[in-house]
Design goal:
single chain, 6 helices, 0% strand, TTI2 protein, Tti2
């Protein structure tokens, strides 16, 4: 947040860091993942003109994290899992806004073939946002 638009200078390195943190769980409280989702949200808000070209990589990382959290059998409490999925969903919505609806296009087939209620709710929130 403090860097504002200056974050655009560091997007390439920041993208690698964000994706690395999204990939790996950090215990039951998932503080690092929750923090990196907040950092990603702030980055998208400040550097939104640069996000469409990063969309495929960020979309893949967010979807993988959502799936990993959803299928996680560890001791992570349900409220923490819900917060992670909520944060990732908010990032997907922001990415969709700054890419003029490309997230909805890319997720089209996934929503129609998804049978899991929780994941459908996440995807539905992205679709319902205008």
């Amino acid at each position: 947040g403090r860097l504002g638009i200056l974050v655009a200078r560091h997007l390439k390195r920041l993208e690698r860091v964000i994706l690395g943190y999204l990939e790996v769980g950090d215990g039951p409280e998932e503080e690092a993942r929750l923090g990196i989702l907040e950092a990603l949200r702030s980055t998208i808000e400040h550097a939104w003109p640069r996000m469409p070209c990063r969309l495929p990589v960020l979309l893949k990382g967010l979807l993988k994290m959502i799936w990993d959290v959803h299928t996680d059998q560890s001791s992570t409490p349900e409220p923490v899992k819900a917060a992670l999925i909520q944060g990732a969903t908010e990032c997907l919505i922001l990415l969709d806004r700054c890419s003029e609806g490309q997230v909805k296009v890319l997720l089209g087939g996934l929503y129609s073939s998804c049978t899991d209620t929780r994941l459908r709710q996440c995807l539905a929130r992205v679709y319902e946002d205008t």
